[in-house]
Amino acid sequence: NLGAHVWVLNGILAVSLNVITLLTIEKVKVLTFVVAGIAKDILVILIDTVAFKTHVSAVQVAGLVVTLLGMGLYKAFCQNRTLFDTEGVLRATTSLLLSKRREHIANGKQGAP
Fold this sequence. Notes:
- The protein has helices at 4-27, 30-52, 58-79, 81-87, 89-106.
- With 113 residues, it is mostly helical.
């Protein structure tokens, strides 16, 4: 049986979370806020897997990999918006990957960048 003080505290925390969310979205773009939320979710899953030995299926790992690739593509898009506008997603991504590969080889490093 919970007392009234627990319910009031819960309400205050919930309203505070909503206010903080609103203030954060005002400072950053909504998409950036969503990407940060996804990054937080991935971090929580990784910590849970390591700390509590929670089983993660192959499908869940594949989902995390796709999510991370999407986040990387979003970062590349934000840093190279003009290239993506002129070349399109596939060509711009290929171009960026090839330029990183050439840079990696020019620096005398072996393996993937």
